[in-house]
Write a structure and sequence with these properties.
This protein is of the alpha/beta class. The chain contains 17 helices and 15 strands. The protein has helices spanning 16-32, 45-50, 63-71, 79-82, 84-87, 110-121, 140-146, 157-165, 204-208, 215-230, 248-258, 274-282, 292-299, 312-320, 337-347, 349-358, 360-378; strands spanning 4-10, 37-42, 57-59, 95-98, 125-131, 151-154, 171-173, 197-200, 234-237, 242-243, 246-247, 265-267, 286-289, 305-309, 327-329. The strands form three sheets. The chain has a seven-stranded parallel beta sheet with strand order 3-2-1-4-5-6-7, with helices on both faces. α10 packs across α15 (337-347). The longest helix has 19 residues, at 360-378. The protein starts with a strand and ends with a helix.
Length: 379
């Protein structure tokens, strides 16, 4: 049939959670319609080419209009100009998919409505894909907008329930499509030991949202001290987003600096594919992750995990898996809380692994639900 599948709401592949969603979404689209033309709206095309995203065409932002938008205080008056190249791709038989999973968790969600409304005007099908929405953000205005999608796939139960309560009937409950990402084998860092390493991810995003500045880093240092003192495990400091303005490596390098003479603490510096990070995570014993998609890589590899959460998505995703006891609200961390949680996880490691194994089929079905719902919509 060869319809145009237009994906938007994506920032660029150095955010490897976004990359994981686009990679798996392209696979899903091709499994439904092998002749589809996949058009991706991206903020950083050079990143995506570097990571060989399986798309047929890129649309970039108009940088001049973007500058005007910024000077205007981001009031969305220039959004249509910023995304002009993308809007030109949308036709009546297009399927237009918002793939930025948490774009509606933030105040600037309205800019995405401009692309969506244009798609409706053109007679295209619209899909809000693999999403989380902060229940507190769901206003009357947002509900009216969400009602106009042909399909919304909510990637966890908390968002799904909130949308049902808001009266939406166009919602299907799924798992994040990145649960289906296949790991790609790469060489382990030299001093990392398979099955004897704890992966730690930290993001500037959670650090910016701290109520008590320094609490997260203090908690992590206490935790690493405990690991070094009480166990033989290695610690792998693993980035998952390496965007210039939001780079996990900056936050993790500061932690490594503190342990610069400790060779059991390994800082992973390579910017690799989401599928390769997933492989590294799958080789660890446990994980402590600030990034949602690092935790999804762990959960789907049956790796017991603590999440430093800051929004509905971490609670919702963990809740679906029965892992909510291991989600800590990163903004509210008290000293010693992370260590306490790690000791609990180590104590219950076997039962947590069993719990994840028991959910394996459900994870698979949860992604399958999204595929079926998309198929139905395309029909």
């Amino acid at each position: 049939s060869g319809t145009a599948q237009v994906l938007y709401g994506f920032g660029g592949s150095f955010n490897h959670g976004g990359e994981a969603i686009v990679q798996t979404t392209c696979e899903i689209i091709r499994s439904i319609d092998n002749d589809a033309t996949i058009v991706l709206s991206t903020h950083f095309k050079e990143q995506d080419e570097m990571f060989h995203l399986p798309v047929d065409k890129y649309c970039c932002r108009d940088l001049q209009a973007l500058q005007m938008e910024k000077e205007d205080g981001n009031r969305n008056r220039y959004t249509a100009q910023v995304y002009r190249e993308l809007l030109n791709e949308i036709e009546s038989d297009s399927v237009v998919m918002s793939v930025g999973g948490d774009n509606y968790c933030y105040d600037n969600w309205r800019k995405w409505t401009i692309i969506h409304d244009y798609a409706i005007k053109m007679g295209a099908k619209t899909v809000f894909w693999s999403c989380s929405i902060e229940p507190a953000m769901i206003s009357k205005e947002m509900i009216e907008h969400l009602l106009t999608f042909d399909l919304i796939t909510a990637r966890e139960g908390a968002t799904y329930q909130a949308l049902l309560q808001a009266g939406l009937t166009n919602v299907t409950k799924c798992y994040d499509v990145a649960f289906s990402l296949k790991p790609k084998t790469i060489a382990l860092p030299r001093s990392m030991e398979k099955g004897n390493t704890i992966a730690i991810n930290l993001s500037p995003l959670v650090l910016r949202r701290e109520n008590c500045v320094g609490a997260i880093k203090r908690n992590l240092r206490d935790c690493i001290d405990d690991i070094l003192r009480e166990t033989s495990y290695k610690v792998l400091l693993l980035p998952h987003v390496l965007m210039p303005v939001d780079n996990d490596l900056d936050a993790l390098s500061e932690i490594k600096e503190f342990y610069k003479d400790e060779d059991r603490v390994i800082l992973y510096k390579d910017n690799c594919h989401a599928s390769e990070y997933k492989f590294l995570i799958s080789q660890c014993r446990l994980g402590i992750f600030a990034r949602t998609h690092a935790s999804i890589a762990a959960y789907s590899s049956m790796i017991p995990t603590i999440v430093l959460g800051y929004s509905i998505k971490s609670i919702g995703i963990a809740g679906d898996l029965g892992m909510e006891s291991y989600v800590l609200q990163s903004g509210e961390l008290e000293d010693g809380q992370l260590s306490k949680c790690l000791h609990l996880l180590l104590k219950n490691e076997d039962s947590v692994k069993k719990q994840l194994m028991a959910k394996k089929e459900e994870m698979h079905k949860g992604v399958e639900n999204a595929v079926m719902a998309l198929k139905e919509t395309l029909r």
